Amino acid sequence: MSDAVLPSSAPAAGPAADPAAIRERLLAEVAALPSLPGVYRYFDAAGQVLYVGKAGNLKKRVSSYFHKDHGGTRIGHMVGRIARLETTVVRSEAEALLLENNLIKALNPRFNILFRDDKSYPYLKITGVRERDGEGGPSTRYPRLAYYRGSVDRKHRYFGPYPGAWAVKETIQLLQKVFKLRTCEDTVFANRSRPCLLYQIRRCSGPCVGLIGTADYAQDVAHAEAFLLGQTQEVLDQLQAQMMAFSDALEFERAAEARNQIAALSRVLHQQSVETSSLSSGEGDVDILAVRLQGGRACVNLAMVRGGRHLGDRAYFPTHVEEATALGAAEAAAEAADAAAETGQGAAPADAGRRDPEVLVLEAFIAQHYLDSALPSLLVTSHRIDPALVAALSQQSGSRLAVQHQPREQRRIWLDMAIKGAELALARLLAEEGSQRERTRALAEALDLQVHDLDTLRIECFDVSHTAGEATQASCVVFENHQMQSAQYRRFNIEGVTGGDDYAAMRQVLTRRYAKLAEGVATGAARMPDVVLIDGGRGQVGVAREVFEELGLDISLIVGVEKGEGRKVGLEELVFADGRPKVALGHDSAALMLVAQIRDEAHRFAITGMRARRAKLRTGGSRLEDIPGVGPKKRARLLQRFGGVRGVTNASVDDLSQVEGISKELAEDIYRALH
Hints:
By secondary structure, the protein is α+β, with helices and mostly antiparallel strands. Among the domains are: 5-107, GIY-YIG endonuclease, CATH 3.40.1440.10; 286-425, 2-Layer Sandwich (Nucleotidyltransferase, domain 5), CATH 3.30.420; 454-617, Nucleotidyltransferase, domain 5 (2-Layer Sandwich), CATH 3.30.420.340; 620-674, DNA polymerase, domain 1 (Orthogonal Bundle), CATH 1.10.150. Helices cover 48% and strands 16% of the residues. β2 and β3 form a beta hairpin. α4 (93-107) crosses α15 and α16 (409-446) packs across α19.
């Protein structure tokens, strides 16, 4: 890939820049673009990325945006906001596709289909299986099963990814039943003097106290790995052969163990009716992808098959679907027109290059999801996807990717299940969004809010939490666009007030939140929320009113949630700072449901933060965090070795220096800091 980036020669335009001058400059830059494959980016006057696209011919593609009249379409709306463009030349269209999706994930453009970057898939890990030499620690001699999230290495063996934690834990339980592999940590394993409860209930073979040899245990691990890879029949054949060999050698106890394993494995296969037919078909790792669009929203449902076992699915809901599919359709039409011109066919038909919006969404998901993830051997899709995308992903991963969109037999069953899952998930999302929108509307009407666009209605809610005055912490949660915006939540450590004085704590948090914001509001550079919700009655609302009057803010924004008679849920009343009479909403009111949802979230966020702060203050955990040179790993080793901060405090310098990664000098620093 070429590193040549061809940016706009002029600085980003300001809000007052002349649109005619901007367009003239952009046209000049477009005229200078090369006829090479590459990626282009459009920016608005504020420097925000509007769109990222790829092209086999940069000059033709980018020119199509500026030399055509797009009218009042979504494309026309975007083109009217372009103030700057950048392009990057690459060697091939495959490189352009990969770079395009890398940039989409990094820049979050306004007019591209975006999927949340979810790399939290868990794995099942078998420790130490790459170093089986009979030496080393427990993980080498007696590998263990473990649930794992994070980056993988070559030291251990990983299976997955799995759609969720439940799928990993279910698989671990299955392997424990059949192959009796250990799950305990090495520190526990090394200090056992008698077998644990898992041995008693036949879920572990007791390697910690030598009840099974390394060779037999290694054979169980090999069988477990083969089972995870879908080689179930081979495992059954090997167990059958072992049982007969032990029987012939008159080792009847060992023959009985092999027989019990066969029986346990057979029961597992019989219970998993969805997977039984797939296991016999010899399937390996397969991802099944189904997409559905409705009401301007889209759902991509990803079902996973690992080692021939159907593990479940996960639904993804992209953003910017309508804008991005409109632009994608226009680009497809432009490509068809370019192809027709090159072949001398004249103008392309009106429907040439038209692409199904569901295909565009599916391709966007595949490109973004598998860009830096391990590819399965097969994708089964609900729609035919572009072969160029398949080739680019295969080229990047170094392994051949097979794609099938009209499967038969077991794969057809899987695909039908995935399609149904996508439909149900999308219907559920639309129902929830419709319900949440109605709640927002009901609250706006109950508070008589003059909001032109309910999507922009912003509510900030405050709550204070402490334990008998200890570790006081306040929370601020945000509701906007009909949902809680967790990325905008804030916590405030309350200092310098008498313990248990909730009024003083509320005064402090409101002052800290709105003092600087009030300055921006006065100059027009900032906007206050439409509602400031206070978890409390007239007293708390009175404190909030005083703060707002001191800052010169509108007191009509303040709404208190006062507990009803007997503090029963559903009897809450709304209290206003500007003197309006209380409002008692019905217990089944949609507006009250929304108020309760926001208030409860503020309470949850405050109390979890308070508990964490209280625990830190009581254990002195922050004292270790504050010591230079003691990072998370070293801190974890110290706490594990000595059983907690108190044990670390009581340890001598020599004891501290025995911990892995702790030098003599660092041990002395730790000792001085804790004494």
